[in-house]
Write a structure and sequence with these properties.
With 322 residues, the protein is mainly α. It contains 13 helices and two strands; from the N terminus they run H-H-H-E-E-H-H-H-H-H-H-H-H-H-H. Helix content is 72%, strand content 1%.
Length: 322
């Protein structure tokens, strides 16, 4: 197990390193005005001096090494346009708490609603034709959420949800963290994708587990159906789902680019959209790296959790397959 975890960590570090270098090189292809506040008014001499101060006049491999050294110290650089000469780490630190709050609430809503939907779908899939209606309705919900681009139903929720809530309660036009009513639509919107994902996979794994020999044996012994479903089918069906939960959780915590920008939420998602519009290359670079590191960390945690929670998983020496 220790050898497996070490290999997974090393592979994750190597992947992150590759992403860091790739992002750094790609952003060097962007116009250089993204590194200066008033590029239009600068003379060629001032531009050369500015590039030299930023270390962008050196050979590319030297730039990469210097960037990795500063990154290893936790220094993401400074903003050139969003907040001139302000450390990016402080900008992110001021934006992240709100995204984490919204992400936690959205993830909680998604799992609390998605798990029962998946369980109900799995039960109705094995029941009489009348009760199969629940499975069909759940399938329609999953297909709609998975097939339609998120930006489309986000927009519909914002338009019609705002109108509906506005008829009941006076609704502010912009997000206000001190007013709970303004959290409802962003959290609900952000939870739908994870809700459909959880329902789909719980339904699939529970249906698969219900045909296993140990379940048939439990039924033959006269074990109550509720006990079989709760203590056997559901517990084993959740294990494969664990692998995707850390990634989903971490990405949800970081906030949604579209949702935060739609509702004018001053979080991580809205920040990335804003700095892209301003062409603040250093902040864009830092945020892309933060999101990449979050994704890789989620995948790593998922692999480790799945191996730890399921005693049936055996790690082979060749290729470390499970």
């Amino acid at each position: 197990m220790a050898k497996y975890i070490i290999k997974r960590v090393l592979r994750s570090v190597a992947t992150l390193l590759l992403i860091v270098i790739s992002v750094f090189l790609l952003l060097r292809l962007m116009p250089i005005e993204g590194y200066f506040t008033n590029y239009e008014k600068m003379t060629p001499t001032q531009i050369r001096v500015g590039l030299a101060n930023l270390g962008l006049d050196r050979p590319i491999h030297i730039q990469v090494l210097n960037f990795l050294k500063t990154l290893a110290k936790g220094d993401l650089g400074i903003s050139n346009k969003y907040r001139v000469k302000y450390p990016i780490t402080k900008i992110i630190a001021s934006k992240m708490p709100l995204s984490i709050q919204i992400g936690l609430m959205a993830m909680g809503v998604a799992l609390v609603c998605g798990a029962p939907i998946g369980i109900l779908m799995a039960k109705s899939a094995r029941s009489t034709s009348r009760l199969k209606l629940f499975d069909k309705l759940g399938t329609v919900f999953i297909v709609v959420i998975e097939a339609i681009p998120a930006s489309v139903y986000y927009l519909f929720i914002q338009i019609y949800g705002t109108e509906l809530i506005g008829k009941l309660i006076p609704l502010p036009t912009l997000f206000d963290k001190d007013k709970a009513i303004t959290w409802v639509l962003p959290v609900f919107s952000l939870s739908l994708g994870t809700m459909a994902w959880a329902a789909m996979w719980i339904r699939r794994y529970m249906v698969d587990e219900s045909t296993k020999d140990y379940v048939l044996l439990a039924r033959a012994k006269g074990v109550p159906p509720g006990t079989i479903s709760r203590r056997h089918i559901f517990r084993n069906a959740v294990v494969p789902l664990v692998q995707g939960i850390p990634t989903t959780l971490l990405l949800t915590l970081m906030g949604s680019l579209y949702v935060e920008s739609r509702y004018s939420i001053p979080g991580m998602g809205g920040l990335l959209v804003d700095v892209i519009k301003r062409q603040d290359n250093t902040v864009v670079q830092a945020l892309v790296l933060v999101y990449s590191a979050t994704s890789i960390l989620g995948l790593l945690l998922g692999d480790i959790l799945m191996a730890l929670l399921d005693p049936r998983i055996r790690l082979s020496g060749k290729g470390d397959t499970r």
